[in-house]
Design a protein that fits this description.
The structure is a homodimer of 194-residue chains. The first copy, chain A, folds into two domains: 47 residues, Arc Repressor Mutant, subunit A (Orthogonal Bundle); 138 residues, Tetracycline Repressor, domain 2, CATH 1.10.357. The first copy, chain A, has nine helices and no strands. The termini of chain A are far apart. By secondary structure, chain A is an all-alpha fold. The longest helix of chain A is centred in the middle third of the chain and has 28 residues. Chains A and B meet through helix 8 and helix 9 of A and helix 8 and helix 9 of B. The first copy, chain A, binds a DNA duplex (30 and 30 nucleotides) through helix 3.
Chain lengths: 194, 194
DNA sequence: ATTCGACTATTTTAGTTATTTAATCGAAAA
DNA sequence: TTTTCGATTAAATAACTAAAATAGTCGAAT
């Protein structure tokens, strides 16, 4: 029992890579075992099932994403900068967390309850975060929003729309440019100020 | 050759209903023929294939949607009202055009080239329309946007994000309320004006 | 405590056959 | 001549089976 956790992490990282490359279905326990230079049975010494390995990978990537976002947001001071940090970090990070991303999107994973839970949990996380930033901005006098909760939903829906277009097709650098255009509209609106 | 077009329309409407209820795969030519009180072969007298019937249904619904949007937009005077008319008409109308909607979304229809074309064509239509409204607003002094084309893309991506959430889950009436919240953010932004 | 080889039970896949459906054709009706 | 339809063919789909691959177990070895 010296470093069971370490060993689990080791296996998890290998599984993470294989899942990212081949997807859940095409990755076999034998694949994972071979790459870890172990017998298949040894994998089962650490994990209950293939499903549970995938679940841990998803959970891990989810935590990573949330951590990254929170760190990025908390580094900033003004609500505007926080919102910007959130937008950009979310989009750029999601590109790398392929398993998590596919768990959020792929329909054929719907029947895994932990996938549904991960989605909901992340949704709550995002809605709450946006809502908090908005409210902070309202209190500090930076923002003026009637219904912060509904606005948060609207902003999240917009982000998801972009995610769909961009995460796949567009290079990471351009994301930043486009996000900033979006942010300017979000902050200033499109109406001319008199 | 008296009213071949009329007869085609008749069949098309029946097909449209069946496709909407059961989807492309589950609707057979016999189903269409029976409901039209014809022999199956008669259907083929008017249409080349099942695929072509579906294509015409899609095209028809696409035109309907575009017409509705254009009429709604052109009825309005100010760019703000035009944008509002566009948002609401798009969302409400799309709910009823089930076949067109599923053609825009369902992956398993990807391999039909006419589906891909319909998507692209509608995308161009929307981007152009938004861009036009923006530019009109800029000229009239109502709007202030740096890059109208990029802004149009951003707005469309946001709309698509909503579409995904709403078209299925939310009653038509509430769409209007939520759209108006979105519009307010789009017009005014979230920053407090000093 | 950890690893693994050998084993079993499920699940997938590949290949076959039966059934359904799309599409054609020629004759008949209008 | 235009339209309809029954009968037929061709193609696609579904249902089934056998073979292969894979998930998961167990007891012995380290």
């Amino acid at each position: 029992m010296i470093d069971r956790a370490e060993r689990k992490t080791f296996i998890l990282e290998i599984a993470q890579n294989l899942f990212a490359k081949f997807g859940l279905a095409k990755t076999t326990i034998d694949d994972i075992a071979k790459k870890a230079r172990m017998g298949k049975a040894s994998i089962y010494y650490y994990f209950k099932s293939k499903e549970s390995i995938f679940q841990e990978v998803i959970d891990k990537e989810g935590r990573t994403l949330q951590d990254k976002i929170l760190v990025a947001v908390n580094t900033e001071k003004s609500p505007q900068e926080k919102m910007q940090a959130y937008f950009i970090t979310r989009m750029v990070a999601l590109k790398d967390l392929i398993n998590y991303y596919s768990a959020l999107r792929d329909e054929y994973l719907d029947h895994y309850s932990f996938v549904t839970k991960a989605r909901q949990s992340f949704d709550v996380f995002e809605t709450t975060l946006i809502s908090n930033i908005l409210q902070e901005g309202i209190q500090s006098g930076d923002f003026k929003v009637e219904n912060a909760a509904l606005a948060a939903e609207a902003i999240l829906a917009a982000l998801k729309g972009f995610e769909f277009q961009w995460t796949i097709e567009i290079p990471a650098e351009q994301i930043e440019t486009n996000i900033n255009t979006l942010l300017k509209i979000l902050f200033k609106g499109i109406e001319k100020r008199s």
